[in-house]
Amino acid sequence: MSIIFKNNQPENSNSNKISVLLKYAIIEISLVVIGILLALQINNWNENRLLNIQKGENLINLKSAIQKDINLLKAIESFNDFRFNSLSQVLKWSNNSVANLDSSKLILKDSVVWNKPIPEEFEKNFFDKTITYIQRPRIMIIHSYAMEEIKNSGIYSKIKNKHLKNLVNDYYSDLYWVFGDDKQSSAIAQLSTYLRENYNLLISDLILLDYPIKLIEKDLGLQLRMRSVISDANWRNIRAGKSKLMALQVLEELNKEIKRLGS
Q1: Which of 15, 84, 156, 191 could bridge 225 with an S-S bond, Cβ 3.0-4.6 Å?
Q2: What is the structure's pLDDT at 258?
Q3: Which residues contact 239 (CB under 8 A, 6 or more apart)?
Q4: What is the mean pLDDT of each run of 10 residues along the chain (263 residues)?
Q5: For position 100, what pLDDT does the model report?
Q6: Helix (H) or strand (E) holding 238
Q7: Residues 14, 164: Cα–Cα separation, whole Å
């Protein structure tokens, strides 16, 4: 019997060695797999981190561009609020029926152009500034460089904030529809042509006249063309205000997204 047990001992020893080797192999393979998975996870984390940094930088640039839009839209509001109210007051001074203006006192929304109340009686300085600003509707320049950069880089498609993207798309669609081909209005050109053909005057020459209100008072055609300028100024004022509000909504959501990407 002892001989049989002695003969079985090498076989058991070999079996134990194979079992140990298999365990070591399994452990090594497991460690390699875990290492690969960790490396992939770290690589994915790093790629996401770099992508978020790039997103954040692009969104900061977009924020800066939209802020420039807002600043210009505010100027358009101020300029055209003055143009609307000041020229309306000039027509009131002329006592004409074409203006169809409210009899209440006209009030400017800010003091960017004129820092005093609108004079109810003729005032030369106010009249001069009114005539000067007829030709200053303030042209809108859309700062689209940041948005174009985001789209061209492919980053825009990777932004998951659908609410932000909807706000951005609506803002730029509206802005391009209103101000995409912004230029001096036809109302100013028609007024300029009328003065040149009928009086051989430039718009700015009205400042040089001794009694400009009398000229306006007796000329229905001139009143009508000034009324067109008033309508254009009112439209630009209202539209700039709406675009500004949309831009402010975009900025608010941009700030949230930039903060989220940085956290």
Answers
A1: 191
A2: 93
A3: 178, 179
A4: 50 70 82 82 76 89 97 97 96 71 77 94 96 95 94 90 96 95 90 97 96 94 96 97 97 94 82
A5: 54
A6: helix 220-262
A7: 68
Residue of 131, 236, 242, 142 whose CA lies nearest to 185: 236
- With 0-12 / 13-18 / 19 or more C-beta atoms within 10 angstroms meaning exposed / middle / buried, residue 32 is exposed
Model pLDDT, residue 4 = 46
- Say which amino acid occupies 100: N
CA 3 from centre of chain: 95
Distance of CA 157 to the CA centre of its chain: 19
**In sequence order, what are the residues at sequence separation of 6 or more whose Cβ sits closer than 8 angstroms to the Cβ of residue 184?**
135, 137, 139
CA 95 vs. chain centroid, Å, equals: 41
Residue with tokens 């009131």: 92
How far is it, in rounded angstroms, from Cα 152 to Cα 165? Answer: 16
Phi, psi of 78 (to 5 degrees): -65, -45
Cβ 262 vs Cβ 63: under 8 Å: no
Per-residue confidence (pLDDT) for residue 16, from 0 to 100? 73
What pLDDT is recorded for position 5?
45
CA distance 42 to 64: 33
Specify whether the CB–CB gap between 99 and 92 falls below 8 A: yes
Distances from the Cα of 181 to the Cαs of 45, 70, 173, 178, 186, in angstroms?
A: 44, 18, 13, 8, 13
Which one-letter DSSP state was computed for residue 154? T
* Token pair belonging to 153: 């880089």
Amino acid occupying residue 260: R
Quote the CA–CA distance of 255 and 196 in Å, as a whole number: 51
Domain boundaries, given as residue ranges, for the chain = 2-262
Residue written as tokens 């070591």?
Answer: 24
